[in-house]
């Protein structure tokens, strides 16, 4: 094994076809890129006990989205800490560690779901899996850019294209497995057929003198169940949501596939260069250098920190949406277009996000070879500001006048957002190479990926916090407009117990909308408005920082260039 992983063993012989490296790099990124299908898990993870809807002791949406955040935070830290070691140990050793962590993280996380221990889920998927994510991300890219110095944007774009495509394959597979292992809980009947009582915000059914804890779903909530079922009361914890089993299977698949791909990685021999030496844009772009900058020296330049901010703000909105994409589209259109937008539609939406994320990585990174990296990022930010600002308008229009037209407009806007999101990622390694050279690209890239960690905090925090704030405000407003007697009859307690009922998921926005006075506007489509305006503002700041980036001063170059 030491010989198989040594630098000497993985150095390519003369005449080696560099294009053979691409499939291995893409496959590795396809596996770890499945993190962008995380939102597929959200509906199941917030119902692991209630199965058909959230139970009092189920995890909240904020808690499960932060598992996704923890994985990306850890990925950025791992990439920053090990970027330099890739040059020493080689991509195979780092890649095998990545495979063990990514696949093993799924297995540990699955155990956490099965035992309902949130900390174990964070440790498995968030920390162990996140470590594998960071190592698996930087290792193939650094290797590819050594093989393709003449097509930096194209090479990094093709590898990172695999990362964007991970969700395209992973989302339908995960959705299929969840549905396959799903077992509906025991159904007791409709509310008018049962004697339901409320104790400390929890719902119970009195059956033959016994008090059985139940969860209750209405018509709107039944439409968003993992598998359709009747409205009414279900026995708490009597079924299976299928997500733990899915974690176990996916972990084994990813481990085996990644190990196979990692063993195919090779590095070019010292002094190797391609037959074609032309680097598009080199002669006309003042940002592009043929010199090299050491990792530690790069940290002393303003260009590093400006690029850090540009990258962070460029992806913050996309990271936030990715953690909640399935939930978001159902919130905005699920009630206005119930016959179209359901759980299956949301799953397909996540897949299409991955498609455009993938296409954007290849398209934009290839364009950057000719437009220049800074110009390409200008396009990203200007277009992104307009697109994020348009989403609240489409949500409002769909609420006032339900029409497929507004769904199509929303769909198109978010698909363009994710093509840009993919482009920001894909062009980054080439942007780094332009500014700092390729010799220490892996190390510099790893440190810049801490911006990915920062965006994974800022994006999901904005999405969950602002959504939760808007939801709480909406529920307070709706509860005050509902007849107190009707409220007490529906939920078994008065409005003075609203906070307790909400915390135990007995009262939900959907249940309040159902009994609200005629003509009341459903506030659900508006839950994300403030978040989208914030994301547009952040892109404006990123636009300014990108304009400030200039070429690195010669005093920072390595002396042996």
Give an overview in words.
Mean pLDDT is 87; it is low at 277-283. The chain is elongated. With 561 residues, the chain is mainly alpha-helical. Helix 5 runs parallel beside helix 7, helix 8 (152-181) runs antiparallel to helix 10 and helix 12 packs antiparallel against helix 16 (404-436). It is 65% helix and 4% strand. It has one domain: Growth Hormone, Chain: A. The protein has a 5-stranded antiparallel β-sheet. The chain is built from 22 helices and 5 strands.
What descriptors fit this protein?
single chain; Growth Hormone, Chain: A; five-stranded antiparallel beta sheet
Task: Give a summary of the structure in a few sentences.
This protein is mainly α. It is 65% helix and 4% strand.
What order do the strands of the largest sheet run in, or round the barrel if closed?
Answer: 1-5-4-3-2
- End-to-end Cα distance, whole Å, is 35 Å
Uncertain stretches of 5 or more adjacent residues: 277-283
Mean pLDDT: 87
| CATH architecture title | Up-down Bundle
Instruction: Provide the domain count.
Output: 1
Strand proportion, as a percent range, falls in under 5%
Residues in helices, as a percent range? 55-70%
Largest sheet: 5 strands, antiparallel
């Amino acid at each position: 094994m030491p010989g198989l992983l040594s630098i000497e063993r993985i150095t390519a012989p003369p005449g080696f076809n560099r294009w053979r490296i691409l499939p291995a790099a893409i496959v590795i990124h396809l596996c770890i890129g499945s993190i962008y299908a995380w939102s597929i898990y959200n509906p199941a993870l917030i119902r692991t006990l209630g199965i058909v809807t959230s139970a009092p002791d189920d995890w909240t949406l904020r808690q499960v989205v932060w598992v996704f955040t923890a994985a990306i935070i850890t990925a950025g830290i791992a990439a920053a800490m090990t970027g330099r070691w890739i040059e020493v140990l080689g991509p195979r050793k780092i890649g095998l560690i990545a495979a063990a962590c990514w696949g093993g993280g799924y297995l540990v996380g699955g155990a956490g779901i099965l035992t309902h221990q949130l900390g174990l889920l964070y440790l498995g998927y968030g920390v162990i899996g996140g470590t594998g994510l960071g190592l698996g991300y930087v290792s193939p890219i650094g290797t590819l850019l050594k093989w393709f110095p003449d097509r930096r944007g194209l090479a990094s774009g093709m590898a990172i294209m695999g990362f964007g495509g991970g969700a395209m394959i992973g989302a339908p597979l995960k959705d299929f497995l969840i549905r396959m292992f799903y077992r509906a809980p025991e159904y007791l009947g409709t509310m008018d057929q049962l004697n339901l009582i409320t104790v400390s915000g929890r719902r119970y059914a009195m059956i033959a003198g016994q008090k059985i804890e139940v969860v209750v779903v209405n018509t709107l909530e039944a439409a968003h169940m993992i598998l359709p079922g009747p409205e009414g009361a279900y026995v708490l914890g009597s079924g299976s949501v299928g997500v733990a089993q899915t974690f176990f299977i996916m972990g084994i698949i990813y481990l085996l596939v990644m190990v196979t791909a990692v063993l195919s990685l090779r590095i070019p021999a010292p002094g190797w260069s391609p037959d074609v030496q032309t680097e598009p844009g080199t002669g006309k772009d003042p940002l592009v250098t043929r010199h090299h900058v050491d990792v530690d020296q790069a940290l002393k330049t303003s260009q590093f920190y400006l690029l850090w901010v540009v990258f962070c703000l460029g992806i913050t909105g996309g990271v936030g949406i990715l953690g909640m994409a399935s939930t978001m589209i159902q919130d905005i259109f699920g009630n206005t277009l119930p016959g179209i937008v359901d759980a299956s539609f949301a799953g397909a939406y996540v897949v299409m996000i991955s498609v455009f994320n993938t296409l954007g990585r290849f398209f934009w990174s290839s364009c950057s070879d000719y437009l220049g990296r800074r110009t390409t990022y200008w396009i990203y930010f200007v277009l992104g500001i307009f697109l994020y600002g348009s989403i609240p308008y489409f949500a409002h229009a769909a609420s006032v006048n339900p029409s497929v037209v507004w769904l199509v407009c929303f769909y198109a806007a978010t698909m363009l957002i994710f093509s840009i999101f993919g482009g920001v990622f894909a062009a980054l390694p080439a942007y780094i190479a332009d500014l700092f050279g390729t010799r220490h690209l892996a190390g510099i890239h790893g440190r810049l990926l801490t911006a990915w960690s920062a965006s994974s905090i800022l994006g999901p925090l904005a999405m969950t916090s602002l959504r939760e704030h808007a939801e709480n405000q909406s529920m307070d407003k709706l509860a005050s407009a509902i007849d107190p007697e009707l409220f007490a009859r529906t939920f078994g307690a008065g409005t003075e117990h609203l906070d307790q009922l909400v915390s135990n998921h007995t009262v939900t926005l959907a249940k309040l909308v159902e009994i609200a006075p005629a003509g009341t506007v459903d506030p659900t489509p508006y839950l994300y408005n403030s978040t989208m305006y914030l994301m547009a503002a952040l892109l404006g700041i990123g636009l300014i920082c990108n304009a400030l980036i200039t070429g690195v001063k010669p005093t920072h170059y390595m002396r042996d260039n």
